[in-house]
Amino acid sequence: MKTQVAIIGSGPAGLLLGQLLHTQGIDNIILDRVSPGYILERIRAGVIEQGFVDLMKEAGVAERMLREGEVHHEVDIAVHEEYHTINLTELTGGKSVTVYGQTEITHDLMDARNASGQISFYDAKNVTPHDMKSDKPYVTFEKDGEKHRIDCDYIAGCDGSHGVCRPSIPAGVLKEYERVYPFGWLGLLSDTPPVDYELIYVKSDEGFALCSKRSETRSRYYVQVPLDEKVENWSDDRFWEELKRRIPDDAAARLVTGPSIEKSIAPLRSFVVEPMQYGNMFLLGDAAHIVPPTGAKGLNLAASDVNTLYRILVKTYKEGRKDLTARYSEIALRRVWNGVRFSWWMTNMLHHFYRDSIEDKIRDSEISFFLACEHRRRILAEQYVGLPYEEIV
User: Fold this and answer.
1) Is 129 assigned a catalytic role?
2) Is a pLDDT exceeding 80 seen at residue 356?
3) For labelling alongside 176, which of 1, 329, 353, 368 has CA 20 to 30 A away?
């Protein structure tokens, strides 16, 4: 088989890249080691920057998002019972975020992929990229007991933190940067109405909490727990009681509880590899970087990677600008490090690390400083709604 771009991984990044390339007549094949059902079962983030929404529009797959997604113009930060409203739209000159679950984004992109007639291989075994430094890279895999080879111009590694693309790069090429946080987020998803229309970030004496939503009838809540905590130690009742202890009293009084649909603990870490490419193979999303969910940047950084590579490849194929592919990592990393820094900053301000330490007192002072005036709230708002994508020239 031959194609122009072989995309390994069919999460939102791989599917969005494939759909965008298809709109420009650039042929691509998607490979994934798991089934579509498995991908759609994964519970992930749902706060989408305007840049991501615009990319979905450009790909022709935003209709349901625009109809069912909820545009949010504000976000609340509650510090020791006191609410601080960050008016995103006023502070950023009209920008906002959209709440629309990653599962729904994946559904929309899979439906578009199927309708387009483009080739996808799921349940592909032993997927392996080859000759990434050459002008003729290729990918091998097995499907239904048969071996296959795809010759291509470029390989897009969209296969996540445990995929094959990053480990296929020879040792010593990539430099890894990592920060592991001493806590995780215990999350619960329930078919209950959200406690508030806006997202509420909570810093309390008992630790961090987050009240978020997926729709008017489905809610997602989180509480900070020690890194060694086990999810089986948390019954639904225990979770709801702990959440009520942390959120403001008025929110606790409104909270509607119910049985969990899904409950899990996510460890928090910051991770980046440099460079984000090896020859003609490019790393996108979790294959190259991971951020704490505090700043809602994980999925959005994957989208900015897609935007960068997509626009480079369009210029490569349409204008003959083969010089641009070598700049993918340089361009992508500028926005990645901004997102990593913002997520790190939000995580540091809102969580307890070591109670009653000097660092804890400094964090209390810092959040008070940034919430105290409009100018400093604007700094937070501009980063929360997402920095502009860099133009490819």
Assistant:
1) no
2) no
3) 353
